[in-house]
Amino acid sequence: MAKSSSLKSTIAVSLNNYLDAGAIVAGASGLTLWQNYLNLSEVNLGWLNFISANCLGAAIGAIIGGFLADKYGRKFIFTYNLLVYMTGVLLVMLSVNFPMLLAGFLITGISVGVGVPASWTYISESSEINNRGRNICISQMSWGIGPMFILFFGMLLAPGGLLYAPVESLAHAFMGADAGEAAIQVFSSRMVFLTLFIVAFVAWTLQRQLEESSEFTAQKASGENNGILDNIQKLFTNRIAVRTVIFLATIYLTWNLVASVMGFFMPHIYETAGGLSNETANMLSCVSWVFVVATTFIISFFIDKMSHKFFYIFGLVAALTAWILIIGGGVSTIGGIWLFTILWGVNNGSSVQVFYALWGSELFPAKFRAGAQGLMFFIVRGLSAVWGLIFTFIYGENGEGFTLAAYCMVALLAISLVVGLIGMPNTRGKSLDQITRERYGDKY
How far apart are CA 219 and CA 224, in angstroms? Predict the structure, then answer.
C-alpha cells in the first residue's frame, strides 16, 4: 500500500477515535442540562457514566468487536458498526425520558468499544514499516481533537454561549413557544450530539470504501481463519500471548485509571485546588487538549526514527510531575495551574495509550490480533468503571481526600512507568510478519 494510501485510510479509520472521545465529552458536558430536563437523580447520572463510552458500554463492545474483526474481517466492522453508533446518538438526540437516554448512551458506548480494536489493528496492518508509529499517532491526535472540538461546540451552543440564540429559536420551532426553560436549554446538548452524528456519517461513508486488510485477507486465503471460540482458545493457551496481554493490560490500566478520572475531575481540580470559576476551568480543560494534539503531532515525525523508550519515559515523567505538583500545592497559583495544564496535555500527547495501541497491534498474530486488543480494552474500561466509583470514596464529598487521591495517582503512574520499561518490546523498523515470527515461530 502506497504511503498516500495508508495515510488516507488512517485518517478515515482515525475518525473512530474522534467519535469515541467525542461521545464521552459530549455526554459529560450536557449532564447537568439532561438532569434538569428529566429531573434525574445522582444515581441516574452514575448509571449514565457507568454504561457509557467511558466505561462498561465500551468494555462490552470491545470484547465482542475484537473477535468479530478476527473472524469476519476489519472491513466488516467498518461497514456496519457506525450504523449502530448513529442509532445510539440519534436516541440521545431524541430522548424525552431516562430509559431513552440510558439506551442511547449504552448503544453508543458499545459501538465505540466494537470499533476500537478493529481500528487500531487496521491502521497497523495497512501501514508501511517506517510509518506504523506515525499512523498510530495520527489516530491519537484524532482522540485529542474530538474532546477539543466538542468542548468548543459545547461552549458556543450552551446557554449563554455565542450561538445559543439560534439554538433557542430552533428549539421553540420544534417544541412550541410554551416549552419549558429546561427543555429549551437541553436542546444545546442535542445539537452537540448532532455534530457527532454528522461526523459518524462521514466516517461511515469513507470507511465503506476501504479495502480489507491484506493481513486478514492472507489469513483467510490460507484456510486458517478459525472460529471465534478457536481464536479465544489459542489466545489463552499460548504463554507468550498471555504474558503479552498481562504486560499491555498492566501498563494501560494503571495509566488509564488516572486518565479516566482526569477526564471527569479535571475541571473540579481547577476549581477546588486552583480556586477558578467553572467557565475558566472548562476553558483550561479545552487548552489541555490543544497541548495533547500539538504534542502528538510533533512526536509523529520522530516515533518511527527514535527510541520508543525516550517518548514513553517523557510522557510519564510529565504526568508524574503534574501530580507531584498538585501534592506540593503548586496549583494554588495561576502559574502552577498553567504548568499543570501543559504537563498533563504533554503526557496525553506522548501517552501510554499511544504505545498500547502500537504494541497491541504489533505483538499478536493476525489470527487473534484484534481479539486480544478487545480483551485488554474490556479489562481496562471495565476496571476503570469500578475505579471511578472507588475514587469518589477516596476523594470524599468535599475533596477532603484530595491529597490521598493524588498519591494514588502518582503510584499508578509509577507502576506504568516501571512495568513499561521492564517489558518494553523492540519492534521499531520491523514488519508485523517479522515480529510475529520472532515471538511465536512459524506456526502463526
Answer: 6
Dist. CA 170–CA 264, nearest whole Å = 30
Q: Which residues contact 23 (CB under 8 A, 6 or more apart)?
A: 52, 53, 89, 108, 109, 112, 196
Q: Which residue has the cell 467511558?
A: 54
Taking only the tens place, the pLDDT of each residue in 20-71 is 888 888 887 788 888 889 998 877 877 887 787 777 888 899 999 998 998 8
As a whole number of angstroms, the distance between CA 69 and CA 428 comes to 25
Average pLDDT over residues 160-182: 85
Secondary structure (H, E, C), 236-248: HHCHHHHHHHHHH
Q: Residues for the chain: how many in total?
A: 444
Three cell numbers written together for 306? 527514535
Dihedral, CA atoms, 64, 390, 340, 52, nearest 10 degrees?
A: 30
In degrees rounded to 5, what are phi and psi of residue 146?
-55, -60
Q: What is the pLDDT of residues 87-119, one digit of tens each?
A: 999 999 999 999 999 999 999 999 999 999 999
User: Residue type at 219?
Assistant: Q
Question: Which residues, 6+ apart, have CB-to-CB distance to 212 below 8 Å?
Answer: 73, 74, 75
Identity of the residue numbered 345: G
Q: Give per-residue burial for 390-408: e unless 16+ CB within 10 Å, then b.
A: ebbeebeeeeebbeebbeb
**CA 364: distance to chain centroid?**
21
Cα separation, 36 vs 129, whole angstroms: 52
| Helix (H) or strand (E) run with residue 302 in it | none
- This prediction's pTM: 0.86
Place of cell 512526536: 299
